[in-house]
Design goal:
By secondary structure, the protein is an alpha/beta fold. The protein folds into three domains: 85 residues, Winged helix-like DNA-binding domain superfamily/Winged helix DNA-binding domain (Arc Repressor Mutant, subunit A), CATH 1.10.10.10; 98 residues, D-Maltodextrin-Binding Protein, domain 2; 89 residues, D-Maltodextrin-Binding Protein, domain 2, CATH 3.40.190.290. It is 41% helix and 22% strand. The protein is built from eleven helices and eleven strands. Strands 3, 4, 5, 6, 9, 10 and 11 form a seven-stranded mixed sheet that branches. Strands 1-2 form a two-stranded antiparallel ribbon. Strands 7-8 form a two-stranded parallel sheet. Strand 1 and strand 2 form a beta hairpin. The longest helix has 25 residues. The N and C termini lie far apart (60 Å).
Length: 291
């Protein structure tokens, strides 16, 4: 009973805590919940008093989760997910509702769209929402619950997320159909430089090249290559699927690995797990992308 009493005492404060924990900014959390910032601040204080320790480091209106806050925030997110999935299970009718999946645009026809027919037959009430979140934003969106799954080929490891290795992605230099030239004469379209000062594609770091255009999305790079003015380093399955011409440089290019990333699975098999398993089965049944 004592355990139930403690949880009951703080249960109504948890949604406010989660909003503040995920934004670390009272005015933003206030807008999301449509509650006064002063009320949110008071709720967080009451929660901390009940727990008996601070959950945030404070600097003006900006709050930063401390170690205890991060542990508790993860537990609250998982508990709310569990309750939601339990409600859906009680309501019956199978798996239903949205599942938010992030995938680079050109990979969607290969790894996401084919599973929609299967899901439509087995789980007609599931609705897949396809996003194109990139870089460090992926992990943050997964933690906040804005994404349920993410297909990435530049996974940034995190202890609180689950990474499933799907298959290697072989790369090549691609040009417009009929375009052939020595690599030294090509002008490349490439991703923006990352915080390490490197261009995050599979071009060898020790080999110079001329970059004439930088883009944030792979699909934009593909369209730039179609103009005939640029070359790009792309996964072989993507370049071939888009009808571009590879120059046969795969052995000199790097190989990335396609991962499926999501929050740790819950004991209740929910919507996310259904879509996750369908993606894994689809990729495992396909020929290796590095062949």
């Amino acid at each position: 009973m004592e355990r139930a009493r403690r949880i009951a005492a703080l249960w109504s404060w948890l949604p406010a805590f989660r909003a503040v924990a995920e934004t670390e900014h009272l005015p933003t959390a206030s807008q999301e919940l449509r509650v006064a910032a002063s009320s949110l601040s008071r709720t967080v204080r009451l929660l901390e008093e009940e727990i008996g320790r601070p959950l945030f480091e404070r600097s003006g209106r900006r709050l930063h989760l401390n170690d205890a806050g991060r542990v508790f925030s993860t537990a609250v997110r998982d508990a709310m997910r569990m309750v939601h999935e339990g409600l859906l299970a009680v309501e019956g009718g199978g798996h239903r509702g949205p599942v938010h999946v992030s995938v680079p645009g050109p990979l969607a026809p290969l790894y996401v769209l084919p599973l929609l027919e299967r899901l439509a037959e087995e789980h007609p009430h599931l609705v897949v929402h396809v996003h194109a979140v990139t870089g460090p934003s992926v992990n943050a969106a997964l933690r906040r619950g804005e994404l349920d799954l993410a297909l990435v080929d530049d996974a940034a490891a995190a202890d609180d997320l689950t990474f499933t290795r799907l298959q290697p992605l072989e790369h090549d230099v691609f040009v417009a159909p009929g375009g052939q030239a020595p690599l030294e004469a090509l002008t490349f379209v490439a991703p923006f430089v990352d915080p390490r000062g490197q261009t995050p594609d599979a071009w060898p770091l020790d080999r110079p090249r001329r970059v004439g255009l930088r883009v944030a999305q792979m699909q934009v790079a593909i369209e730039a290559v179609r103009t005939g003015r640029y070359a790009a380093v792309l996964p072989v399955v993507v370049g071939r699927g888009q009808g571009l011409e590879g120059l046969g440089c795969s052995e000199a290019m790097g190989t990335s690995v396609l991962h499926l990333v999501h929050r740790p699975s819950l004991p209740i098999r929910g919507r996310t797990e259904v879509v996750r398993d369908a993606i894994v089965d689809l990729v495992n049944a396909a020929p290796s992308a590095a062949k």
